[in-house]
Amino acid sequence: MTDNIFISYSRREMGFVDDLVSDMEKQGFNVWLDYRSLVPGTPWKEQIEKGLNDSGTVLLVVSNASLVSEHVKLEWMHFIQANKRVMLAVFEGVTLPTELRNYEWADFRGGYQSGITELFQKLKQPLQSPKPIPALGFKAPPIVWVACLVSIACAWLSLKAWWTLFIPWILLPLPYRIIKRNYNYKQVQTALVMLPLAMFFQAALDQTIFSVILIFWSIFISPLLFMILHSSGLQRWGKPEATRPKFANPYQTENITPKPTTFYTDYSLQDQVAAQDLAAELKKFGHQQTNEINNASTAFVLISRYKSETIADPDKQIVFPVIIQTNDNMDKKLSSIQWIDFRPGVRKLDVIAKLLSNPSELLKALGIRPVSSQTIYPPTVTLMNFFLNFLGVFTIGSTIKYLQTSLILLLNLPFFSLIGTLFSFGIHIVIFSTLLFLMQQGITTRSGFFASFYRTALGFASMPFLLFWQLRISAQADAKLQAVGINILSSFAAAIPFVLCLLGVIALGFIFLWNYRDIKRWFPAKI
């Protein structure tokens, strides 16, 4: 069995690589994988070079993205030039460079289990003569084709929800995007949750047997596709944007007693809650906080939109960049050091405290998959953003659907009555859309009027009143129609967004209480 195996891959295949490495470690292979093996606080470039030199085999994940990557090419060329073993894990059928055509390979395109069985058999044996190079052409695991078929059914259903705009925009191209591996997992998840509710809203307006049948069909097909996309097969198949954030814990820290050390937390005042929580956890395990950054053996630098640099000296002390919010202008000195990524949420501070004096296993113990260029927020922030998107789609969409259903009838009203009704709908949409935009901006960017927990809570509390206003406008329009002898109850459908909003705001209230500390860490502290 090979002593050490270096995994060379593109981040585009991270879902596949994550499962592959986990299964290899279960079989007893020693694997060097960047986001599990790098040591935070140490320059990452030198660590990768050491990983290359200390490994006897490279396992190259063959894909379109990996073969055009200059960094990946430097990795596998290192093993060829050093006359070390090269093994190919074929994820996509591509034309291999001439240098790679005489090496062993295992084909994962038709199925993961058959591919990994073949890979293990070869890695456990001495170097063998290679088979002919793998055939070109598109191949995909069976679960991918099942996902395509189910997504076609969802795409057809989404046509009935055209008035939401968002649902067909996401679900109509989904079968093609599954094949291309580039669908947005979060957006698809949101659309699938909305689809049955949109069908229910549609049935409330149409009041036909066919619409009722669509409700039951959507209740079955949406969860089915959700489970398929959530399955390990699709999570291995998709690019990073098509996978969910994943956490693993391959290294446990229960019985570790840390060696006390001195530390300093360097942060902007807006991030002081997260900094205080980190310092408190470090002190709980015996580490001593200093008041001068130059007197600390370890410096934690919290990176966010409010901070991108530090006066800490990586040549004289250990410096840990801790990213809690994306900042594309990070100081070059910090960007060359392996960081701790807390964009998915500040978590496992006790692990940092336990491994502070021995950080070689820190990334593995934190178990955070890299988020690369994805837009990632803490879970509570993601939930708030989802709820706002949900309300926006149904509130604006329900107004469009109501007007589409009732506009011909509304033309029977007196001119000024008609103008007044349309003006009321328009004013409501403008106010609601403006509030929605400002709240989303404040929540996701941590800037603006709603970059505050209390203002955000007030904004959510105002949502039911705005939707009740929408319900009143619809009811008054129905009453005007009844006054001229037209019986219609379309306003009943407008009650659906109001009820959903009211229930959602109540649920968010409990979630805020349960995750109060996470929310306080995210919103900028008052200066």
Shape: flat
Q: What's the oligomerization state? A: single chain
Tally the helices: 21
What is the β-strand count? 10
Report how far apart the termini are: 58 Å
What does this structure look like?
With 527 residues, this protein is of the alpha/beta class. The protein has four domains: 5-123, Rossmann fold (3-Layer(aba) Sandwich), CATH 3.40.50.10140; 142-242, no CATH class; 262-366, 3-Layer(aba) Sandwich (Rossmann fold), CATH 3.40.50.10140; 379-522. It is built from 21 helices and ten strands. It has helices at 14-26, 34-37, 44-54, 64-67, 70-81, 112-123, 142-158, 166-171, 174-180, 185-206, 209-230, 232-237, 272-284, 332-335, 349-354, 362-366, 379-410, 415-445, 453-483, 491-514, 516-522; strands spanning 5-8, 31-32, 57-62, 85-90, 104-107, 262-266, 288-289, 298-303, 318-323, 340-341. Strand 9, helix 14 and strand 10 (340-341) form a beta-alpha-beta unit.
Secondary-structure blueprint:
Layout: E1 5-8, H1 14-26, E2 31-32, H2 34-37, H3 44-54, E3 57-62, H4 64-67, H5 70-81, E4 85-90, E5 104-107, H6 112-123, H7 142-158, H8 166-171, H9 174-180, H10 185-206, H11 209-230, H12 232-237, E6 262-266, H13 272-284, E7 288-289, E8 298-303, E9 318-323, H14 332-335, E10 340-341, H15 349-354, H16 362-366, H17 379-410, H18 415-445, H19 453-483, H20 491-514, H21 516-522
What can be said about this structure in brief?
This protein has 527 residues and is an alpha/beta fold.
